[in-house]
Design a protein that fits this description.
Blueprint lengths: L6 H6 L3 E2 L8 E8 L2 E8 L7 H9 L3 E6 L3 H13 L1 H23 L10 E3 L10 H8 L6 E7 L5 H15 L6 E4 L9 H12 L6 H10 L4 E4 L15 H15 L5 E7 L7 H9 L5 E7 L10 H9 L10 H9 L2 H8 L5 H16 L6 H18 L4 E2 H22 L8 H9 L4 E4 L4 E4 L2 H12 L12 H11 L4 H11 L7 H12 L6 E2 L2 E3 L2 E3 L2 E2 L5 E2 L2 E3 L2 E3 L2 E3 L3 E2 L1 E4 L2 E3 L2 E3 L7 E4 L8 H6 L12 H8 L10 E2 H7 L5 H13 L3 E4 L2 E4 L1 H10 L1
Parallel strand pairs: 3-4, 6-9, 6-10, 7-8, 8-9, 14-18, 15-19, 16-20, 17-21, 18-22, 19-23, 20-24, 21-25, 23-26
Antiparallel strand pairs: 1-2, 2-3, 5-10, 11-13, 12-13, 27-29, 28-29
């Protein structure tokens, strides 16, 4: 190994090669940053004579290090540790994790504990015993660039999962120094590229150039974890045809980093962004080659959270599981002592109210806050009203204080006067106390604050929407509606019906939005759908039996548990890469109207009950195979990935079942390879496709 081979590495770290003192046996690299003067003398072996050089540099004020490296890799690790202070960074990440855990603990006065969530991993076989933290962390040490996407409904554990990944990496993989940033939407429409630049600058000290940090990100030594990717989607991005087009700019910034061994994790709510053809086309057209892993977090399982006694009580009271299957409420119920739990389950409709009362009562004690619970709620409902109006999820502490004051001035004056003169706070002191409330927390890498979790924020949004004088049209983004809908599934029947009646007719709602909204708020699916595609959602414990309820529809990457399907509810409807757990199928007709492709039932017999039924196919249409193969070639006649569900959806309604069967045949003939909902041409398939196009 030539001694000169270290030059590029040291120059990248900002050193200067001292040519006068260097030769073919040793290299002298000096670093001048501010008041710090350092010098590394790199030699081939310990016998190299260099003490006179060390003395000369020391006399000149340089802090000298004499190094003998056995390889470039050893030198890389040494400089990385020296400059990125991975030990100090680990301590900083641990502190951040413990602060997060403490904030969660302070809400209910019980030790924070992460409950592993079940998940689906697109394009990989499900492993029931594999922890998502272990699964994601293992990908951070694999060779090659990795884009890891973690999606879940609002309030279903994305941020907690992000923090657990950070904690696991900082404890167990000492060679990695991750960057973790939480995104939030405020009034300043920052460009995503600039946000990442700010994160890099803020995370590391001034000795490090941005280019060096980016190099180590691309090297895989600095995994980049971006929590809340969807927070930056503007209200325009909620519109049907612009969603991917506008997020593409953000993805291009990420794509530029995905070279060599880069590892980037992004989390966000479930959207159509990552399940459509546009995302696959973006991957195919990207000059950088990287692997994509898409995790879909399932709703929490109550048996993972509550002990046998509490589970038994819930079953005795016949409380619908869906009413409490939320991490926030399950953590609350888990924290309760037995006698208090017994009193709460007697009136399950009041679980949410008791959750808020517990927080608000403790806040009165913690901050000596002379504000009764109902007035605290009113203050934060009005704060939410302002956040809805400005379409933000967080903002600077100063601005949140101004918003609290502006929306609650008269009430705050009354509260101030309720204090004795000796203890009466000023208005600034009172709003500052409220900005430090347990319901609020720091958001993002800036000093922004917002509601501590999506469940609390969504509850306030929903409560505002159902007020008689509220103008629902001032809700600027679908994200706010989704937060309210998800949180309100745990409200009383009256409140759920009110919210459902108000938002059902919103123009921003697509067919899938309507289906999920009805399921969450009504506990059923009664609407009729035709020529619709549904992606990436989970439903459980319902009956789908209305005649011809789904005509020529496509379900992709969906999860069903304890659902009873009736054949007459479907007309030429396909299920692609779906999971059926403990589901049943009732066939009332001679011909089945369901076609399954790449689905799994984990041995419950659901798939066999359908496959045994004859499926009517139009065998006279000989052009379907050619049309499908054409879809796997781009304009330049190069092969590309396609979503099976999108190919089926693009077919004319009368041919959708035939298209499903033809795709299955192409798979059997090994013309295409299918991975979940994704498919691509094999070598044989490419030859046939080229002849056609």
């Amino acid at each position: 190994m030539k001694i000169q081979s270290f030059d590029t590495l040291y120059l990248r770290y900002g050193y200067t090669l001292n040519k006068k003192l260097s030769n073919n046996f040793l290299r002298v690299y000096t670093l001048n940053k501010g008041v710090y003067f350092g010098a590394d003398i790199v030699v081939n072996d310990n016998n190299t004579e260099c003490q006179h050089i060390v003395k000369q540099l020391s006399d000149a004020g340089f802090a000298c290090r004499l190094k003998v490296f056995q390889s470039i890799k050893e030198a890389e690790l040494f400089l990385f540790e020296s400059f990125f202070h991975s030990t100090q960074l680990t301590e900083r990440l641990q502190k951040r994790y413990h602060n997060f855990a403490k904030n969660q603990s302070d809400i209910l006065k019980v030790k924070y504990e992460y409950i592993p969530v079940s998940y689906l991993l697109e394009n990989e076989d499900f492993k029931s015993k594999k922890n998502i933290i272990d699964s994601v962390t293992s990908k951070l040490t694999k060779e090659g660039a990795q884009l890891i996407i973690i999606e879940a409904a609002a309030g279903y554990g994305k941020t907690c999962t992000s923090y657990e990944i950070i904690n696991n990496v900082s404890l167990n993989i000492k060679t990695l120094s991750p960057i973790f940033t939480e995104l939030s939407r405020d009034r300043r429409a920052a460009i995503f590229k600039h946000i990442l630049q700010d994160v890099i600058v803020n995370e590391f000290h001034s000795l490090l150039d941005e280019e060096l940090v980016i190099h180590e990100i691309q090297n895989g030594k600095i995994p980049l974890i971006i929590d809340g990717f969807d927070e930056l989607l503007s209200k325009e991005q909620d519109k049907a045809n612009s969603e991917f087009a506008q997020v593409e700019t953000m993805l291009s910034t990420i794509g530029d980093l995905l070279v060599s061994n880069a590892k980037i994790i992004i989390t966000g709510r479930k959207t159509a962004i990552f399940s459509g053809d546009s995302f696959n086309n973006w991957i195919d057209s990207n000059p950088n080659k990287f692997e994509v892993s898409r995790y879909l977090l399932n709703p929490p399982k109550i048996e993972d959270w509550l002990d046998e006694y509490k589970l038994k009580k819930i079953n005795e009271k016949e409380i619908p599981i869906n009413q409490i299957s939320n991490p926030v409420l399950l953590a609350f119920l888990r924290s309760l002592e037995q006698n208090i739990f017994d009193s709460i389950v007697k009136e399950p409709n009041q679980i949410v109210d008791r959750y808020f009362d517990t927080i608000l009562d403790r806040e009165q004690e913690r901050q000596q806050l002379n504000i009764e619970a109902k007035n605290q709620l009113n203050i934060f409902r009005k704060l939410t009203d302002g956040m809805i109006e400005f379409d933000i999820t967080s903002d600077s502490k100063a601005w949140i204080r101004e918003l609290i004051l502006d929306r609650n001035y008269e009430l705050l004056e009354q509260i101030r006067k309720s204090y004795s003169i000796a203890q009466r706070p000023s208005m600034d002191e009172l709003t500052n106390t409220l900005s430090n409330h347990a319901l609020l927390d720091r958001k993002g890498n800036k000093d922004n604050i917002g509601f501590i979790n999506d469940f609390i924020f969504g509850t306030f949004i929903g409560e505002n929407i159902i007020q008689p004088n509220f103008n629902v049209n001032k809700v600027l983004s679908k994200h706010m509606i989704e937060l309210a809908t998800t949180a309100f599934q745990f409200q009383s029947r009256i409140n759920k019906d009110k919210l459902y009646g108000i938002i059902l007719g919103l123009s921003i709602f697509k067919k899938q939005d309507k289906l999920i909204t009805e399921y969450l708020l009504k506990g059923e699916i009664s609407q009729n759908f035709e020529n619709a595609t549904f992606n990436d959602f989970s439903i459980s414990k319902i009956n789908i039996g209305k005649k011809e309820q789904f005509k020529r529809c496509v379900f992709a990457n969906c999860s069903f548990e304890l659902v009873n399907f009736h054949n007459n509810a479907f007309l030429e409807t396909s299920f692609v890469n779906c999971v059926f757990s403990k589901c049943t199928f009732t066939n009332n007709e001679t011909n089945a109207n369901i076609y399954l492709l790449n689905c799994n039932d984990y041995g419950c017999g659901f798939i066999n009950s359908i496959d045994n039924v004859n499926i009517s196919i139009d065998d006279n249409n000989t052009n379907i195979e050619e049309e499908i193969l054409r879809k796997f070639m781009d304009i330049a006649k190069r092969p590309r990935h396609r979503k099976i569900s999108m190919i089926i959806n693009e077919a004319i309604p009368e041919q959708r079942t035939s298209v499903s069967k033809t795709i299955d045949q192409l798979k059997s003939e090994k013309w295409i390879k299918v991975n979940g909902d994704n498919a691509f041409l094999t070598e044989i398939g490419i030859q046939h496709a080229i002849q056609i196009v």
